[in-house]
Each structure stands twice: as C-alpha cells, then as structure tokens.
Amino acid sequence: MLKIRCPWCGDDPLYIAYHDEEWGVPVKDDATLFEFLLLETFQAGLSWITILRKRENFRKAFDNFDYRKIAGYEQQKIDRLLQDSGIIRNKLKVHSAVTNAQAFIKIQEEFGSFSNYIWKFVAGTPIKNKLQSMAEAPANTLLSDTISKDLKKRGFKFVGSTVVYAHMQATGMVNDHLVSCFRYNEV
C-alpha cells in the first residue's frame, strides 16, 4: 500500500527515513534534544537536507553530540572544527555550539533536565495541529517567540523563533505532519 507522506520529504531516501522515523516524534531525552538543537542552529539559513547529509560528520566532529564535552571545548578544538569540511564551517555557529552547551547544562542544573525545561512550554503534551497543506505550516508562532526569547535570555545563540519552531517540530513538541500523512496519528 502506498504511504501518503508530507510532501516536503520528496523522494530522497534520507529525507523519507527522517520523516518516517524521527520528525515529530516526541523527544524527552536530553542528549537527543541537544543533538537536534545543535543541528537546528547550524541549519539556520540553509536547507535541512544539507544538515541531514552532514549529520554523521557533525556527530563525529562534535564528540557524538556530547554537550558536556562540547561545553569544555578550547580554542584548539574550535580551530579544528573550523577546518573540518564535513560540517558547516561557520565561525559564529561553531562558537555558539560551545556557548549553547554551557547554557544547556545550566538549564539542566536549574530544572533537573533540559527536557523538563523545554516541555513545560507545552505542559508536557505535544501540540497537534491539523494542517491540510504545507502552506498552512507556520515558520514560527507566538510560543516559539516566547521560547526563543527565554533561551536567548539564558545565553543561547542562533535560537531565533524560526529555529526554535523547527526544533519543536523535529522533537515532537508540535505535530505538523499533514492530517493526510500516515505519520499524523502515529506520533
């Protein structure tokens, strides 16, 4: 039987796998939340498929997305990252990965986990939109504006409202699968 998917994943096998297995699935694990946050910040201004294609390179370059290690990166490691053609070599984004890892740990200390912090914005329950077409999907919302402002206040970088909304979609805080998509009711 033919599966109906959100049209944004097209026919790229990597995009289809991401759509079918990850996008919109509620994530409560801090390590995975940080991975998506790091990838979303590097995605700013680029296409998500570009990041997906480099995801394993990012995983290797950034110590398997270990935020504790990343928080302690010194200039020598940052310099190596800036020479790594397997990732996005944007100086500000590389530096923000370190800053964000440090801010991530501070949130964990305050709230017990980053998951406790981020999911409180939706009272622990995903927002389930009823999108009929991708044209209805917002790039940001009042809620993503609020989260973005709070993250920035806490020292995060590259967490504008659009990046935050993409993170919310990716980690299942919001279900933006089209109602016609087979994943809509699964997640």
From TrEMBL:
InterPro entries: Adenine_glyco, DNA-3mA_glycosylase, DNA_glycosylase, Tag. Transmembrane segments: none annotated. This is DNA-3-methyladenine glycosylase I. It comes from the Bacteria. The lineage of its organism: Bacteria, Pseudomonadati, Bacteroidota, Flavobacteriia, Flavobacteriales. It comes from Jejudonia soesokkakensis.
